């Protein structure tokens, strides 16, 4: 069969019984030829000197009968700049020639897809990639432009908690990397690829879609002892082809709230495409931690932003009709900052995402039930969230955490603030739901509901006493440029330690406690960036 296909592929010119242009007002069917060359497919009638040039990336072939087909293309006449969609009726002299032509077209397209028109490895270009189907082009353009700039890479590299933890997780687990093939997913500056090479990797494929790939090549070339074992590949992990499977995947796919920017999906796709069944992922799992909080200062700060719209005589204009909309708009922004863990008013719970097992589609929608027992009586202003990830090495298990009270990272923490706070008593149950739905701007819409049940005599006969809900866009947070403050405690509040985690999907005792790596930093603070993810 392979020999037969090879013969068909070598037969690059076909005589056609008839060719007619569907775009012609009075189409005439005349004999013609179809030929393949390095530039593509050419179809023309014998009496027509200007052939139809067909780009292999756009051709679609439909078989109407054993000897009759329609070829739909985006083409152009030789010597003309204008391009257009075009359909051509082609009829073969017999069924065998028709079958041969179709086989050659499929083989030809396959070769073009793998090697590209100039013979270089590239993405599948006959159709939109999986990434392009999910993500709005304007969002992707801004995203890759952002990560293609060195100043943003520097901001992440200067997060010494982040970079130091990655370095420790790799170097302390040399046995996992020595002599192994590694794929760095979203390599950015290439720093993780260099770490893997330092740990003795046999070869590292650094896959990076932005223009940062060129800087990565330059940085890696400047470290010649490591460069000979690192190959930078510019492209998306959804599209590129690699010459061999990987024993290790390493990546920094985490965004705000772990899932922002939707790079976790690319990490999972890379797992399915490149990782051997027994391979390891660094990191291997992530946890989103959640707890209700009280913060009167923050609530008033957000509410006061809408005071501008309460003016009844702004240059003679009454602005109050827009006050309600503006008020809700400010509360639709998740707050990104570092806060005092004493603001938490209940033990936290967590939602586990196992990167080694989860399906890509399961990241499109995440539904987390909430249940807490209030430790104090106070007003609940919303839900605080942070995350950690586990590097499950064979030698050392190491955690990278963004928890409040821990060394601050460039991710900080995130808080969803209710426009209508609820009041609870100590010991009262708080229930609710955190519903995260992915959208095509590389982020998520957040739906949060918190409710407090009745408290005191007769509570068992009563239902929900208070409920408050909000809708937030994770893509448009409020970056609150502040460090944790010492808040005055209410009379019925006692200082609380950082409350331990209660896992939803796995028991906390199944995982080692987080270890923190903090290296001396020449800068005492880490800047906030509007996009935060991989290096």
Task: Give a verbal description of the structure.
23% of the residues lie in helices and 33% in strands. The protein has helices spanning 2-10, 95-115, 130-134, 137-147, 150-157, 160-171, 174-177, 191-198, 212-221, 224-227, 263-274, 296-304, 323-330; strands at 13-21, 30-37, 40-45, 52-54, 60-63, 68-77, 84-92, 181-185, 203-208, 230-234, 246-251, 275-282, 285-293, 335-337, 348-354, 365-373, 378-392, 397-401, 413-424, 429-439, 443-453, 464-473, 478-479, 501-503. Helix 1 crosses helix 2 and helix 6 (160-171) runs parallel beside helix 8 (191-198).
Supply the key terms.
535 residues, alpha+beta, eight-stranded mixed β-sheet, six-stranded antiparallel beta barrel, 24 strands, disordered N terminus
Compact description:
The protein is of the alpha+beta class.
């Amino acid at each position: 069969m392979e020999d037969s296909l090879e013969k068909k592929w070598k037969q690059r010119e076909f005589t056609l019984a008839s060719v007619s242009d569907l775009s012609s007002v009075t189409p005439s069917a005349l004999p013609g030829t179809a030929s393949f060359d390095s530039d593509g497919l050419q179809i023309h009638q014998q009496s027509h000197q200007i052939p139809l040039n067909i780009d292999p990336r756009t051709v679609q072939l439909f078989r109407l009968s054993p000897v009759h087909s329609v070829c739909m293309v985006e083409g152009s006449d030789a010597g003309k700049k204008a391009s257009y969609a075009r359909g051509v009726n082609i009829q073969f002299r017999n069924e065998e020639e028709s079958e041969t032509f179709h086989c050659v077209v499929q083989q030809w397209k396959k070769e073009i897809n793998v090697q590209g028109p100039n013979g270089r490895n590239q993405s599948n270009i006959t159709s939109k990639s999986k990434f392009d189907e999910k993500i709005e082009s304007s969002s992707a353009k801004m995203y890759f432009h952002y990560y293609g700039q060195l100043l943003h890479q520097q901001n992440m590299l200067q997060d010494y908690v982040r970079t130091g933890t990655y370095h420790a997780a790799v170097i302390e687990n040399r046995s996992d990397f020595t002599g192994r093939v590694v794929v760095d997913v979203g390599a950015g500056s290439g720093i993780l690829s260099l770490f893997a090479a330092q740990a003795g990797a046999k070869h590292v494929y650094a896959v990076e879609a932005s223009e940062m790939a060129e800087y990565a090549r330059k940085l890696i070339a400047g470290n010649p002892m490591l460069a000979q074992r690192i190959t930078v590949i510019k492209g998306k992990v959804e599209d590129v082809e690699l010459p061999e499977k990987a024993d290790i995947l390493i990546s920094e796919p985490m965004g705000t709230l772990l899932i922002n920017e939707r790079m976790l999906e690319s990490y999972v796709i890379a797992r399915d495409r490149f990782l051997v069944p027994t391979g390891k992922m660094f990191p291997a799992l992530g946890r989103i931690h959640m707890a209700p909080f009280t913060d009167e200062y923050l609530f008033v700060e957000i509410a006061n932003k809408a005071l501008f719209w309460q003016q009844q005589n702004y240059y003679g204009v009454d602005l109050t009709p827009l006050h309600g909309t503006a008020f809700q708009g400010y509360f639709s922004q998740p707050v990104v900052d570092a806060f005092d863990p004493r603001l938490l008013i209940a033990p936290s719970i967590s939602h586990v995402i196992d990167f080694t097992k989860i399906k890509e589609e399961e990241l499109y929608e995440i539904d987390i039930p909430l249940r807490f027992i209030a430790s104090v009586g106070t007003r609940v202003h919303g839900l605080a969230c942070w995350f950690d990830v586990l590097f499950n090495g064979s030698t050392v298990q190491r955690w990278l955490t963004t928890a409040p009270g821990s060394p601050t990272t460039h991710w900080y923490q995130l808080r969803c603030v209710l426009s209508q706070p609820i009041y609870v008593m100590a010991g009262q149950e708080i229930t609710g739901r955190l519903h995260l739905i992915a959208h095509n701007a590389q982020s998520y819409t957040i739906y949060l509901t918190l409710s407090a049940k009745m408290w005191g005599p007769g509570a068992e006969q009563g239902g929900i006493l208070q409920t408050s809900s909000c809708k937030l866009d994770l893509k448009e947070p409020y970056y609150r440029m502040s460090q944790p403050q010492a808040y005055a405690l209410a009379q019925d509040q006692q200082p609380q330690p950082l409350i331990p985690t209660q896992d939803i999907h796995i028991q906390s005792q199944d995982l080692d406690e987080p270890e923190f790596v903090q290296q001396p930093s020449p800068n005492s603070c880490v800047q906030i960036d509007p996009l935060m993810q991989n290096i």
